[in-house]
């Protein structure tokens, strides 16, 4: 009976990991296709479509736009999330439970609804569709995530360290920058890299809030409207590679933090 359970467990694990990774393997494999169609038989390997992507001005511009929007919006979201979490954790505020619920509320709302609401708001405020509007939208959806991660890691032991720094004469801004931020660095980096990952491949809000300057997911959608070709596979592989790099950087940061 134990042998049967073990075999079933292995088969289940293989099915789960296959369901997750087989599409990625197929995507990367046919991005190396030498012919014009990403269908069997495989005729590569060839870097023809990666060269086509890197020589395409619209795609490279969209790539730069995605990196710019993701980095700036993530930095803004993690900064606001940290300050909000610090305020709720260190001060007694009236209705703090309700306010915390309102901050995390966007986590339960569809991106489509958030994007449409922001589109109406920006039209009323006179802010045109642009990368700035998309960046604000990304801050809206990522700030609750950063707040939840950082707030969950703020414990009572940090209060004692901060109190000791104040007793030694440190002003509040030094306590915040030199004590609280370093102690909370793992949670801050976790929020930042997760926000980068979500912002990097976010489509709905970017599609609704941009017009001429677009992000990479929007350009990929424009390519898919004309049908499948290995060029879309190459772009998707680049997106996947950047996501992997972000995860590796996050893990290296945590590893270095543990060693110190």
Automatic annotation (TrEMBL):
Signal peptide range in chain numbering: none
One annotated Gene Ontology cellular component of this protein: plasma membrane
Keywords: Cell membrane, Membrane, Transmembrane, Transmembrane helix, Transport
Places the protein is found: Cell membrane
GO terms for biological process, alphabetical: transmembrane transport
Keyword Cell membrane on entry: yes
InterPro entries: Bact_Polyamine_Transport, MetI-like, MetI-like_sf
Residue spans crossing the bilayer: 7-32, 67-89, 101-125, 131-154, 175-200, 234-255
Pfam families reported in the protein's UniProt record: BPD_transp_1
Record membrane topology: Multi-pass membrane protein
Chief location category: membrane
Top-level taxon: Bacteria
Family: Belongs to the binding-protein-dependent transport system permease family. CysTW subfamily.
PANTHER family: PUTRESCINE TRANSPORT SYSTEM PERMEASE PROTEIN POTI (PTHR43848:SF2)
Name of this chain's protein: ABC transporter permease
Highest classification ranks of the organism: Bacteria, Pseudomonadati, Pseudomonadota, Alphaproteobacteria, Hyphomicrobiales
């Amino acid at each position: 009976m134990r042998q049967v359970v073990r075999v079933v467990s292995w088969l289940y694990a293989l099915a789960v990991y296959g369901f997750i990774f087989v599409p990625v393997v197929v995507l990367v494999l046919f991005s190396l296709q030498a012919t014009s169609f990403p269908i069997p038989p495989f005729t590569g390997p060839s870097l023809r479509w990666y060269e086509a992507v890197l020589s395409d001005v619209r795609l490279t511009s969209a790539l730069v736009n995605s990196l710019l929007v993701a980095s700036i919006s993530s930095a803004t979201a993690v900064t606001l999330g940290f300050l909000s979490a610090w305020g709720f954790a260190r001060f007694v505020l009236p209705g703090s439970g309700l306010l915390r619920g309102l901050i995390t509320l966007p986590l339960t709302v569809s991106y489509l609804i958030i994007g449409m609401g922001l589109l109406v708001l920006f039209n009323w405020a006179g802010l045109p569709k642009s990368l700035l509007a998309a960046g604000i939208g990304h801050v809206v959806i990522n700030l609750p995530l950063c707040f939840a991660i950082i707030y969950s890691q703020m414990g009572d032991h940090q209060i004692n360290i901060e109190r000791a720094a104040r007793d030694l004469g440190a002003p509040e801004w030094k306590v915040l920058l030199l004590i609280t931020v370093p102690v909370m660095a793992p949670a801050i980096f976790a929020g930042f890299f997760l926000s980068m990952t979500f912002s990097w491949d976010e489509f709905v809000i970017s599609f609704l809030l941009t017009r001429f300057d677009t992000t990479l997911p929007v350009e990929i959608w424009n390519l898919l409207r004309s049908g499948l070709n290995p060029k879309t596979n190459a772009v998707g592989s680049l997106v996947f590679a950047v996501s992997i790099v972000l995860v590796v950087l996050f893990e290296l940061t945590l590893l270095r933090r543990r060693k110190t």
